[in-house]
Amino acid sequence: MREKFLPPFILQPKQQANTDNTNRNDSALSRPTYRSGQQRLARFGPPLGLVSASASTSSAAPVAAKASGTTTTINVAAAAAGSVVIPPVPRSGAPITSGNSQVEARLAASDNAPELAVYSEVMEVLGSQLGSSLMEKPLIKELLATVVRCVQASKAGSTWKAYAPWMRSFCDFAVEIGVKPLDFNETQISLYLGGVYASAERDKVGPQRVETASAAVSALFELAGKPSPCSGKLCAGVREAARRTLRPQLLNRAAAAAEDLKALIDKHIHENTQLSVRIMVTCMALSFAGMLRYSDLARVMVHHDLMRFYPDRVELFLFTSKTDQHCKGALVPIGRISGPYCPVQLLEQLLQVGGYKRVPAQGPVTAPDGSVSIGDVEDVGPLLRACSRHGLKQVAVPLMAAPGEKIQLIEPLAYATYAKRFKELLTEAGVTKRLTTHSMRSGGATAAVNGGAERAVVQKVGRWRSSTVFELHYVRDDGAAKQRVALCLGLADRSGKDPEGDE
To answer: Which residues does UniProt assign to the signal peptide (predicted)?
Structure first.
C-alpha cells in the first residue's frame, strides 16, 4: 500500500518527516508558516493547559474516550481495515485541490445578495441618470441590475442584514417628512441621525446604533451611485457626539479556561455519549484550541482535502472568515497533545462514531466552458451539523442540481441552536461562569499566551489582523504577569520582606 493512501492518523512520524520539509507553495491557500509540524506542536499545542502527563503521545495508538472512572477504546486504525474509504494524506503545505468543489459550491450559495426594500427606488435613480431612451433597451436594464448586484456583493451578507432595519427606518422617516429617500441632503440626514441618537440615549445603549444607521444610509446612496450626505460635517458631529456621550452597557463575559473544557469533556464524553452531544463538545474543544468563531466552526468541512490529519496535528481549512472577506483561505493548525483532552483525538473519535463521509463520490463534472472532467459529485458537508437519534441527518448530498434549481447543500447547525446547547452543556458540567460561544476563542488565546506560547504565533494561529484588538480584547494576562511589570521597575524591597511587610 502506498503511503499516500494510509490513514493520516496512523502514519508513523518517520514516514511523515519527509513531507513536512517540502518547500512551501506561495499560494494563499498554502498555509501554515511553520517549518515543521513538530515546531508547531512544541510552540503552540501544550500551553493550552489540556495536556495529561501520564497519557501516551503515540499518534498510532487507539483513541481513548474518557468517562467518569472508565476508559473506552475506539480503534481508529481498525476502521480503515473495513469498508470505510480511506482518505488520501495531502502533502503538508499543499494547496487545496480536490476540496475546491465543496468550497466553490458554498461560496456560490453565499453570493445571493439579500433583497432590498428600496430596490425599486435605487433602480429609478440609476435609470434617471442613464435617460429614458437607454432604459428602454433590455440589455441596459440587465446590465444595470448586474451593477447593483455587484455593489451589493462588495459587502458581506451579514452586513446587509444588519443594515436592513435601518434602511427601512430611514425610508419610513422619509415618508413621514415627505422627501424621497435618495433626495435627502446633509441637513435632512442629520435630522434622521439625531432621532437615532435620541433613541440610543433613551435605551442607554452605546454609539454603535448611530454608527450602524449612518453606515446603512451611506450604503443606500452608494447603491444608487450618489455621494452620501452622511459624510458631511453635521452628520459627522452627530456620530462623534454618540462616541463621546453614549456609554454601552458593559457585559462581564468571562473567557473560557482549560479547566472548563476539561470539566465539559469529563462530564459528557464517554462510551454512550449521544452523537449530538459529541458533536457539540468536539466543536467546543476545537473552538478553544483553534481559537475559532462560530462562523469558523460552521465552515469546517470534513472533506479529506479540507481537514488534514498528520501525526502531530490536524489542519482545518477555512475558505473564508470575518477577517478574510476575499476568500483567500487559511489552514488552521491544532496540535496533537497527550491525554483524553486532546482536541485532535476528540475529532478522530467523532468522525468514526458519527459515520461522516470524508471522500465524496466521483463522476463527470461539466465546467462552464463545456469541458468535462472527473470530480466530486457529492457534498460531504460541515463537521457541525444536525443529527437524530439514529445518526447524522445527512451524510452526503448531490453537488449538482437540475437547470434552474438551487443546489441543496448540507447546512451547518444554526447559531441559535449551537448557542443554546453550548450553555446547557456547560451548566450540566458544573461550569458557572458566564460564557458565550466567543468565550472559547478568547479563552484559547488567553490560555496559550499565559501558558508560554509566543504572542505573535497565537495571533497568527487565531487569524487576528490587528494586534491592538488581539491584546486589548482577547488576551487577559494572568495576575503573575501583571505583577512582574511592577517588579521590573526596580522599586522592590530586596531585604527579603514580602509585599505585606512581614518577614
So the answer is: none
DSSP-derived letter for residue 113 is P
CA distance 330 to 321: 9
Among 327, 331, 329, residue whose Cα is nearest residue 93: 331
Burial of 335 (0-12, 13-18, 19+ CB in 10 A): buried
Q: Are residues 228 and 304 in the same domain?
A: no
At which of 217, 245, 273 does a domain end? 245
Average pLDDT rounded to a whole number, residues 446-457: 85
Same domain as 145, residue 38: no
CATH classification at residue 139:
1.10.150.130
Q: Are residues 113 and 94 in the same domain?
A: no
Count CA atoms closer than 13 A to 220's CA, side-chain side. 30
Model confidence at 133, pLDDT cuts 50, 70, 90, reads: confident
**Residues 115, 99 within the same domain:** no
Sign of torsion, CA 435 439 440 444?
negative
Closest CA to 296 of 262, 273, 329, 260: 329
The helix/strand/coil state of 333 is strand
Q: Which domain holds residue 51?
A: 3-104+254-419
Top pLDDT among 123 and 311 is at 311
Can you spell out the DSSP letters for 1-30? --GGGS-GGG--HHHHHHHHTSPPP-STTS
Could you give the angle at which helices 186-203 and 208-223 cross, rounded to 10 degrees?
150
Out of 365, 390, 419, a domain closes at 419
pLDDT, tens only, 186-237: 999 999 999 999 999 999 888 999 999 999 999 989 888 889 999 999 999 9
Query: Hey, what's the cell of 412?
Result: 451547518
pLDDT tens column, 344-378: 999 999 999 999 999 999 888 877 777 888 888 89
Per DSSP, the three-state class of 308 is strand
Helix axes of 258-268 and 415-428: crossing angle, nearest 10 degrees: 90
Chain centroid to CA 100: 18
The residue among 94, 123, 86 whose CA lies nearest residue 31 is 94
CA distance 498 to 483: 13
Spatial CA neighbour of 61 closest among 462, 344, 446, 413: 344
Give the pLDDT confidence of 18-68 residue by residue, as tens digits: 344 334 333 334 333 333 434 433 444 445 666 654 443 333 333 333 333
